[in-house]
Amino acid sequence: MALLNVNPTRMELTRLKRRLKTAVRGHKLLKDKRDEMMRRFVLLIRENAKLRERVEGELSRALGEFALCRGLMEPEALEEAVMYPARTVKLEVGSRNIMSVDVPTLSVEAGEARLSYGLSDTTAQLDGSIARLSELLPELLKLAEIEKTCNMLADEIEKTRRRVNALEYVMIPDLEETIRFIAMKLDENERGALTRLMKVKEMIFERDQVV
């Protein structure tokens, strides 16, 4: 704790009390914000873990089928087969607000799937791999959206935590200590003024008695 560099006056005391009241209210609001962001962050982390496990499982199967294709097909035929997309997609990027944090939203509208290669020089594993990857695209985008949201919320939670700690351990204690100091100083000045006043009255009384 440290005393603020202010003049010990009643006006300054009133101003500091208003600042303290505002700081205490701000501290409570920031703590509530931090706690709510933590709650939503935990929910998103759980959703992210489940989605990531499912996506990684599907990706592993799709890539396994693709690896098998590479062993069964000529490299030139495989390259030609995957040169053109299996379907068209329309990606929309937006945002939503979570506790004053603008996080991204991703939505995809996929066209009808179609084979972009002939069947004579390709394998069934290639068909399965491409179909699986095509169906996995919306979940991949959802995973990216959730992970980016988690990262942004984690940064905001850390910033809010630092603000809460600054108020709780620095600003509010400094204000309280300064208010106590000024109150004591003003009381001391009042006692000194009262003592001087009583001394003056005593001197006047003694003078009147002599007269």
Task: Give a brief description.
This protein is mainly alpha-helical and 211 residues long. It has 3 helices and 2 strands; from the N terminus they run ααββα.
Fold and architecture overview:
With 211 residues, this protein is mainly alpha-helical. Helices cover 74% and strands 9% of the residues. Strands 1-2 form a two-stranded antiparallel sheet. β1 and β2 (101-110) form a beta hairpin. The model has no long low-confidence stretch (mean pLDDT 83).
Layout of strands and helices, then pairs:
Layout: H1 10-72, H2 75-81, E1 89-98, E2 101-110, H3 124-210
Give the amount of beta strand, in percent: 5-15%
Rg over CA atoms, rounded to whole Å, is 36 Å
Question: Largest beta sheet: what is the strand line-up?
Answer: 1-2
- Proportion of residues in helical segments: over 70%
Output the keywords:
single chain, 211 residues, mainly alpha, two-stranded antiparallel sheet, 3 helices
